[in-house]
């Protein structure tokens, strides 16, 4: 079961990560994705353990970006893999059976490959382009085309400069959840609003058998 709303924390310092994640958990987020690309290697293990302490207190799921061995060591709930990370089939062999694997995708072919590799969910984007986007925006048409072509039970999560005004139309495409970063960091009170828009309470999650 994958929550519909994911908070992606990609802060520049460990302290900023901890402060943001504390606020997100306090505001009711059910899944935190920890992106430590800006953090020095020597600080990764300590930061991940400190974040786990926060998420465990709130019974929030913790997903670690890329560092699957660290995710196994601290017993995080799972990992998220970018296209440049290790293959899901390799990572699966390294994790505990109960840990989940999510992965990023941009094209139908990306999604088909990930489904073949039995990932638990796919983050598909970007919905809109931003200053940091390298890929072309998929938009509502792209989401609709991919979701209809796949006809998969694997949850598809939208990402990429999404606002509250976009949610209703995005969900109508077949996308079933959202992974948000700056949108929530700017105002953690929006977590409640997104939950309402997604109809995503702790008892109404996307169901996916692992």
Quick structural gist:
With 210 residues, the chain is α/β, with parallel strands linked by helices.
SSE inventory with pairings:
Elements: E1 5-9, H1 14-26, E2 31-34, H2 44-57, E3 61-65, H3 68-74, E4 78-81, H4 88-94, E5 100-105, H5 108-116, E6 121-124, H6 139-150, E7 156-158, H7 167-171, E8 177-180, H8 182-185, H9 190-198
Parallel strand pairs: 1-2, 1-8, 2-3, 3-4, 4-5, 5-6, 6-7, 7-8
Helix pairs in contact: 1-2
Using only C-alpha atoms, the radius of gyration works out to 16 Å
Count of helical regions: 9
Main CATH class: Alpha Beta
What is the straight-line distance between the termini?
Answer: 8 Å
CATH architecture: Alpha-Beta Barrel
Q: What is the 3D shape?
A: globular
Question: What does it look like?
Answer:
There is one protein chain. This protein has about 210 residues and is of the alpha/beta class. The protein has one domain (about 5-200): Alpha-Beta Barrel (TIM Barrel). Helices cover about 40% and strands about 15% of the residues. Helix 1 (about 15-25) packs parallel to helix 2 (about 45-55). The chain starts with a strand and ends in a 12-residue tail after the last helix. Mean pLDDT is about 95; it is low at about 200-210.
């Amino acid at each position: 079961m994958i929550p519909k709303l994911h908070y992606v924390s990609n802060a520049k310092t460990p302290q900023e990560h901890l402060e943001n994640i504390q606020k997100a958990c306090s505001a009711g987020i059910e899944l935190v994705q920890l992106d430590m690309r800006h953090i020095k290697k020597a600080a990764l293990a300590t930061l991940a353990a400190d974040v786990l302490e926060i998420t465990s207190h709130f019974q929030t799921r913790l997903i670690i970006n890329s560092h699957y061995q660290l995710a196994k060591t601290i017993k995080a709930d799972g990992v998220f893999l970018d296209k440049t990370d290790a293959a899901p089939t390799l990572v699966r062999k390294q994790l505990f059976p109960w840990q989940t694997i999510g992965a990023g995708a941009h094209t139908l072919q990306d999604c088909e490959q990930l489904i073949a590799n039995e990932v638990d969910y796919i983050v598909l984007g970007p919905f809109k382009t931003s200053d940091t986007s390298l890929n072309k925006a998929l938009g509502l048409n792209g989401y609709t085309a991919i979701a209809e072509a796949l006809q998969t039970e694997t949850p598809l999560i939208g990402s990429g400069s999404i606002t509250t005004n976009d949610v209703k139309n995005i969900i109508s495409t077949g996308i079933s959840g959202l992974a948000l970063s700056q949108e929530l960091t700017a105002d953690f009170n929006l977590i409640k609003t997104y939950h309402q828009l997604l109809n995503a309470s702790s008892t109404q999650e996307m169901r996916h058998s692992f």
